Amino acid sequence: MGRVTERRRVIRIRDGAVSARPDTLVAEEPLEIRLNGRPLAITMRTPGDDFALAAGFLVSEGVLGAASELQSIVYCAGATADGYNTYNVVDVKLAPGVAVPDITLERNVYTTSSCGLCGKASLDAVRTQARFPIADTPPVRLEPELLASLPDRLRASQRVFDRTGGLHAAALFSPEGELLDIREDVGRHNAVDKLVGRALQDDRLPLSRCILLVSGRASFELAQKAVMAGIPVLAAVSAPSSLAVDLAAESGLTLVGFLRGSSMNVYAGDERIALRSGV
């Protein structure tokens, strides 16, 4: 749809010199997600991969866990009073017989590009809804050197970031370090939802042989999304939150933070990291 970036006039000041020029900015627009025709959530996102974003969101909510449970996702025509299709409203229809938890239709969530699933940061909720116990995933043993190589590979694949400098990214890697998929968005949790949603659409859940790398911090919401998708390893270039560490320890998720250069902190699940000394 060509709405990933937009141009705006900017006054540029460099070493005292002033000039006017156009600048490329990342686009941010609201996306309303409807479930079986009923409003469910609104998130601020970068347009693109909207169907994957909606599907991934519903995986995180525990509504979807397999491609067979999804009947369709469509943009809603007539989303405005004059009948114009803004491409900012999607309707997800579940396959016949798929149960809709009451809570998903009652809470009518508003999420922003930074907060994720506000008001639902509950360890108990994740524990009861997770379909793919990480403890049951095939064993993964990762060399620290392999993890250290991933941020540069993520950054090299951020095509829109190079033009705007304003996007988060999330990527899936194999245990051997192969880049499997990457998505960008103004919201870090949206980027992860797009990855997970695409995996659901391709019937690849659980992602039990994947490393999830995110370009920012590791919040509870991102740890939640990793657990709900069955991802055993979450790595972030910045800090985790205390609740993210608690969730990782409780669920068996390996959580790595401050992944920069050859340095990193392992906050939980160190049994998947090939440690050589000092522990």
From TrEMBL:
InterPro entries: Cytidine_deaminase-like, FdhD. Its main location: cytoplasm. Keywords: Cytoplasm, Molybdenum cofactor biosynthesis. Transmembrane segments: none annotated. Pfam families: FdhD-NarQ. Gene3D superfamilies: 3.10.20.10, Cytidine Deaminase, domain 2 (3.40.140.10). Belongs to the FdhD family. NCBIfam families: fdhD_narQ, PRK00724.1-2. HAMAP family: FdhD. Required for formate dehydrogenase (FDH) activity. Acts as a sulfur carrier protein that transfers sulfur from IscS to the molybdenum cofactor prior to its insertion into FDH. This is Sulfur carrier protein FdhD.
